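Lab notebook page, bench 4
Experiment: in silico fold of construct C2
Operator: M.H.
Input chain length: 547 residues
Purpose: comparison with the prior construct
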Amino acid sequence: MPTSTAQPKHVKHMRQVLLWPIYLLPLDDDGPMENHWEHLKKTSPDNPWREIDDEFGDPKEFQARHYNEFVTFLPPVQRFLYGQGLGRAVFSTYGESPITVMRRTDIAKVRVTLDSGSAPVLLEVAHIDLYFFFDIDVALLAFEVSANDLPFEVSQEVLFRFGRAYPAYWEADGRGGHCPHKVEWLAKDGAVMATSDYEKKEKYLSFVCQHRAPAVASHWEFLLSPMVLHHSDRTGPIRYRQLEYYRMPYMVYLAMEDATALTRPDLVRLAIGSAPGDSGELPYSQQYLQDFERRHCYDRYCDLNPGARYGSRFMSTGHTLVVLGDAKDGFFADAESGVLSRFRHQHFLLFMIAHFQKAGLRMFSDRLVAIVSRLDVQNPKANRVFRRAIRHTLENFLRFEHRYWFHEISNHAQARELFAMTRGQLELDSLYDEVREELQDMGNFLEVEAMRRQNETVVRLTVVTILGLIGTITTGFLGMNLFAWSDQTTWWRTAAFLAVFVPTIVLTILTVAKSRRLSEWLDALADDSLSTGQKFRAFWRVWFPGK
């Protein structure tokens, strides 16, 4: 593990929050989006998830940090995050928060062995939460861990390797590329609850070969249970698949013993989430990184001048959000009202909102692909299913657009600017425009199809009306009393009625069946440029189309 010999670099406190978005498969392929969390509310021995209430229940337990968090955001975002205090019984109304949070508390620690033979790093688990959103088939796993008194290079290695859903490749010794040697979930009594299996190369290769989708490491599968991977042979109440790259987005808080000891190459690696390297050598070319500070650093509260108070430095790439400061700075390390508190609450929420928006848009795009792939214009049932699915998706996207889509979330300068930086790096606006155009194309297709069916119906009715004039005139003639049939017997008049009625029914049915060809013949009959022979041949094709 290469290091620099300049100054000792030590992390007094490290905190990492992994944020893993997953796509929840519809419980009914042809139905609307579901409230998946309702299936996790059911208590059972194999279900460790429990719904948690927000902090707005008992005023006696409502703390100042909750208030500071609340007032950070604009009113529309407040309603999204917290609702309006109308109760949480009906999630579909405007005044209710559309967020449901499920939490598991059985995992107390994580033991991460970075390399074979190296001492493991023990991480304390702060919380493991699943965020569900009304009308959106997306869940976000928020996994917060912390550690104290680590060498900076070890912290970098943990940040680089920990949040891997599956290996990118395998090293010569069989270890999963860029993955820890071993990850273990530990219970409160120290018992091992689940262990990673990054080294099982055949498992991942065979899964991709069979399902055209990547497998998930065993410890992450265990963490999300009883939910199961979409292509897995296991059964579960909810099936999911991945939306993102195999490396999970994450946030990092580092309270350094001396933050000024970090060099520019250290900061670049920390921001982009790369492996530790030589502190005197940049990981990329100088030309590529010439505007690194402008693009990725937020230094409103950081003074880089020698001898000045360092403050807090924020670095963001969209995939990562890093908060760096000095552990000796009381405000930076304050867990109740300082930067650490804001990192765990305000900064987490703005990071979560941005990644939720991205996951939601990816979910809509994925769902549209699945809908279109089942379209068969020759199959009436498939057409009906397609139209219904598109209407449901358009309805859900409309609610997503008005309930979840924010360009600004706060008037506080730091929160507003960090959110804008993260959104820009995630390229949310271009992704939104792309999905919206796809939906508009689908909507236009539905309108064109509806007009086409309506036009065909009008053509058929027109042909039937024109040719029905013959029957109308005939029956009208019979009703003019030109013949003294009123003096005939009842059976004779009934027979005369049926002699007209039955052929009229047959003629109407035949006209509807041949309406398309008859409409073509009527067009030919009205075309002065066609000869009498051509018009006759057009009439002949009504009855004998192949000749």
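Observations: Residues 10-445 form one domain. The chain is about 45% helix and 15% strand.
Next step: discuss at group meeting.
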